[in-house]
Design goal:
By secondary structure, the chain is an all-alpha fold. The chain has 20 helices and two strands. A hairpin with a 5-residue loop joins strand 1 (119-120) and strand 2 (126-127).
């Protein structure tokens, strides 16, 4: 095993499966189960933001949520769901749900803190994110070092290697479905991303506000169609998720070779990649919102995790399991995540059309993630090197979008996994420290009416 593989294994198979859920449990208890108490309010605020009157010169809470979801609803909901199930068995989905449940509390705090620490720049625009509340969480050099470290990890993991991961998924799916060469895909994706990204933050948020709901509903429709056709297998599929969560080796006579550790680690690792709760990556999008209060935006942060993991990924998982895992034996363990989804959709259409639909879905989901991650990565780069570095970072990000289309995926995935884990390890301690403060915790026991609008300091 190489040193890089060993490091990834330690971080993702041992540290994150304990550290991340542990933080979520702590914040859940401190907030008196905010994800349950405020769930109804979260859904109300999410849909209420959709129809509320908006100032065209400001970024609405709904637009910031869609920008956040643009980063979350990437290939993790398509390729990631399939990969988690193939590698960790149906039980991996249960652990993704557990991770997401406690992650909703973490996401709540991330959005609240992003609102409470956002800054007004000299040009009138707003900035903020995890680095800002990390710096405030710890006094002196410790806060400065941790915030700078997080910014470095985030600037690499999001707008650079993260963008390359997403563009690689697009290029691979387009080649498999339509035979489009990676170089051509790279040129077209890079030009499309440049057209949106170089127009600025508002262009990214407005496109996300329109693109994310449409692609999400279309994908949900296809999954529901598969589940409807296989409706007699739904209860069995759900049963496999719960049985496989605690006794994966008992499924299919133990021929899968999947252990409990594999199911748990795959669930937590893939859950982190898809909903990003604990990474601090969505905090930059939540900071941009002209929300009526930090708590209001916090409820939208929770909604993002729920929509991503329980809704989108959940129905994807049930659809895959109902098609591939309700027979006498499981599918080939060498099956890729994207091919697993193609075979699933082949249940209601031809394999050719299923492959085309998955390719287009990956294109839209991953492209939205490129935009969302670029926004967060750019904010981190600006914190690290100043606002003047944004243009150079944007150009570097576009270069990585192209590179991702022409190099082998494992190289980029390994680097991204490491930096994602390092983001968690620098972000979560700050969230815990501030969230564990009785003065801050007391705020979320109260009604949203008791909140004052976040003051934006110059």
């Amino acid at each position: 095993m190489s040193a890089v593989s060993f490091l990834i294994s330690v971080l993702t198979d041992y540290i994150l499966p304990v550290f991340l859920p542990g933080a979520g449990i702590y914040l859940t208890l401190k907030s008196r189960f905010v994800q349950i108490r405020c769930f109804k309010e979260s859904i109300k605020n999410t849909f209420g933001s959709l129809f509320s009157k908006r100032d065209k010169n400001k970024i609405s809470p709904f637009a910031s949520l869609m920008t956040s979801l643009a980063a979350q609803l990437g290939t993790g909901n398509i390729v990631g769901a399939g990969s988690a199930i193939i590698t960790g068995g149906p039980g991996a989905i249960f652990w993704m749900w557990v991770s997401a449940f406690f992650g909703m509390a973490v996401a709540y705090y991330e959005a609240v803190l992003a609102q409470k620490t956002k800054k007004l720049l000299s040009d009138g625009t707003v900035t903020g994110g995890a680095a800002y509340y990390i710096r405030e969480a710890f006094d002196g050099k410790k806060g400065k070092i941790l915030s700078l470290a997080f910014s470095f990890f985030a600037s690499v993991a999001l707008g650079l290697t993260g963008a390359a991961v997403q563009s690689n998924s697009i290029a691979v799916s387009l080649k498999e479905a339509f035979g489009i060469p990676g170089v051509l895909s790279g040129i077209l994706i890079t030009l499309a991303a440049a057209f949106v990204i170089l127009k600025g933050t508002k262009a990214v948020t407005r496109l996300s506000e329109r693109l994310v709901p449409v692609m999400g509903l279309l994908y949900i429709f296809m999954c529901i169609a598969v589940i409807t056709v296989n409706r007699d297998k739904v209860l069995e599929s759900v049963g496999l998720i719960f049985k496989g969560a605690f006794s994966p080796d008992s499924l299919f006579g133990g021929i899968t070779g999947i252990t409990l550790k594999t199911a748990v680690s795959q669930g937590v690792k893939r859950g982190l990649f898809t909903n990003e709760a604990g990474m601090g990556s969505t905090a930059s999008a939540h900071a941009l919102s002209d929300a009526p209060s930090p708590h209001f935006q916090g409820t939208l942060g929770m909604a993002g995790v729920f929509i991503d993991t329980f809704l989108m990924l959940g129905i994807t998982a049930v659809a895959i399991i109902s098609v591939l895992y309700t027979g006498e034996q499981p599918p080939d363990s060498s099956l890729s995540g994207s091919l697993a989804v193609v075979l699933t959709f082949s249940r209601i259409t031809s394999e050719r059309w299923a492959s085309a639909f998955v390719a287009v879905s990956v294109l839209l989901f991953a492209f939205a993630s490129i935009l969302g991650w670029n926004l967060s990565g750019c904010s981190s780069a600006a914190f690290l090197f100043g606002e003047k570095s944004k243009r150079l970072y944007l150009l570097s990000s576009l270069m990585f979008v192209f590179i991702g289309c022409i190099i082998p995926a494992p190289v980029i995935w390994h680097i991204t996994d490491i930096f994602n884990a390092m983001m968690v390890l620098t972000n979560v301690p700050a969230v815990i420290k501030i969230g564990g403060d009785p003065e801050n915790t007391e705020l979320i026991y109260k009604s949203d009416k008791n909140f004052q609008k976040a003051k934006i300091s110059p």
